[in-house]
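User: For a benchmark we're assembling, each entry needs the component sequences followed by a predicted structure for the full assembly. Here are entry 17's components. Please fill in the structure.
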Amino acid sequence: MIEKSCNAPMTENDRFHFVTILSVAVLSFGGCGRTVVTAPAKSSGPPRLTELTPAQQMQKERADAARGELFSKLMEKLQVSLVEAGPAGAIDVCQQAAPQMAQEVSRDGLRIGRTSFQLRNPKNQPPEWASEFVRLKTREPVFVGLPGEKFGALFPIKLLDQCTMCHGQPAQIGDEVHAAIRKRYPEDVATGFAPGDLRGYFWVEVD
Ligand code: HEC
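Assistant: Structure for entry 17:
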């Protein structure tokens, strides 16, 4: 009798526990930085949309355009300030200009910002709907429906070569830059990244 029950096929309940244990295992490894889990737990956050209505498709295009606009503004500003002020001086520019540019692009019922699972500025927390996707280091764009027919988009940002002077390994960050970062962002954990790594996200909300 006992032997038989050990060989019995998995019940729904067993399967549920197996899946739970598996997810916990995957999530624990996620902490090491390489494992990718794209779906958030059922209980947290809105589910990602796999098909978009025509209205959502238009919201997505607006989100995409805003992401492109903010990205080019930031890159341009970064290049100019690196030349004019050097890497340590560019930290100041980033601190002032990054939130200001996000505000400029946030208009006509659209809001945009940058966030990460390893933040430099603690004010760059993700919006509530995005937090689980950010925590799980989702590598693909995520689209969700939000209350009141609103739309949320989360676009991954990868690290480029020119980012390592401020977000790379400690050896890649000059002393002056390190000091400037420490002074303005005492809680900074946004270092240790290599080119190609997932660095963070643009989040966008469209009414
Ligand atoms: C000159 C130094 C410098 C360089 C180069 C730099 N960053 Fe940053 N980065 C910063 C600073 C300073 C902040 C904090 C800005 C703020 O206060 O919002 C920041 C914040 C961020 C954030 C927002 C999340 C957070 O941690 O607060 C992302 C995402 C990001 N950087 C990505 C990049 C990428 C991608 C590149 C390369 C294209 C890059 N950075 C290059 C200094 C730099």
